[in-house]
Amino acid sequence: MAGLDGPRFGAQPGRARQLVVVLHGLGADGQDLIQLAPDWAKALPEAAFIAPDAPHACDMAPYGRQWFSLQDRTPAVMAVGAAQAATALGTLIEAELARFALPPEALALAGFSQGAMIALQLGLRRRPTPACILAYSGALLGLDVLAAELAGKPPVLLVHGEVDDIVPVAASRMAEAALRAAGVPVEALYRPTLPHAIDPAGIEAGARTLARAFGMTAG
């Protein structure tokens, strides 16, 4: 799983002050979510964005990538897959921070669906912790070991559609409860008519969270 890469947007080395890593969902690739970068760049004009392609070809569709297989959805199996993907992603993040000469605290993680699972998996266990985590239509895996593995308490934004028929909204509600119980600051936005997707309200909430995390003002 070495050598992750993907589309980029925003500030170049020598000019970037933040790094935002955006993680796509199952059966997609980095091109799917790098489209969020222009909107979020209005709040973080000096940020570099990268949307890496997941390490594996999707085994549930003839196209796209996956962070880990969902053929077996046993919670323990999914948690192991997420942990393995997070390790590979961590290697990319270290390389990108070095390329942009940025400190670890300049990192923000965002993800959709399976990408949100990876953002939470890595972000809550990473030292130093990222400035914030944005998790759209995802789930928090490894709930039973979260307290033991929690490395810090970065602010988390959870956004989920209440009519999501791919990842039920209950997954984010469970994540919200677990994070609050662990003392992690959480903002949750539940969209009444939204399916498995990201809408303008969610994008705006992400911009506000990014701006606040880095001491900026969202435009």
Largest sheet: 7 strands, mixed
| CATH class type | Alpha Beta
Quote the distance from N terminus to C terminus. 37 Å
Assigned CATH architecture:
3-Layer(aba) Sandwich
Question: How much helical structure, as a percent, in the residues?
Answer: 25-40%
Protein name: Dienelactone hydrolase family protein
Keywords: Hydrolase
Domain Phospholipase/carboxylesterase/thioesterase: 15-204
GO molecular function: hydrolase activity
Describe the fold and architecture.
Keywords: Hydrolase. InterPro entries: AB_hydrolase_fold, LYPA1-2/EST-like, PLipase/COase/thioEstase. Pfam families: Abhydrolase_2 (PF02230). This is Dienelactone hydrolase family protein. Residues 15-204 form the Phospholipase/carboxylesterase/thioesterase domain. This protein is α/β, with parallel strands linked by helices and 219 residues long. The strands form two sheets. A seven-stranded mixed β-sheet has the order 1-3-2-6-7-8-9, with helices on both faces. The protein has a two-stranded antiparallel sheet with strand order 4-5. It has one domain (8-213): Rossmann fold (3-Layer(aba) Sandwich). It is globular and about 45 Å long. The protein is 34% helix and 18% strand. Strand 6 (107-112), helix 4 and strand 7 form a beta-alpha-beta unit. The chain contains seven helices and nine strands; from the N terminus they run E-E-H-H-E-E-E-H-E-H-E-H-E-H-E-H. The termini are far apart. The protein has helices at 30-33, 37-41, 75-99, 114-123, 146-149, 170-181, 200-213; strands at residues 8-10, 18-23, 47-50, 56-57, 65-66, 107-112, 132-136, 156-161, 186-191. The longest helix has 25 residues, at 75-99. The model has no long low-confidence stretch (mean pLDDT 95).
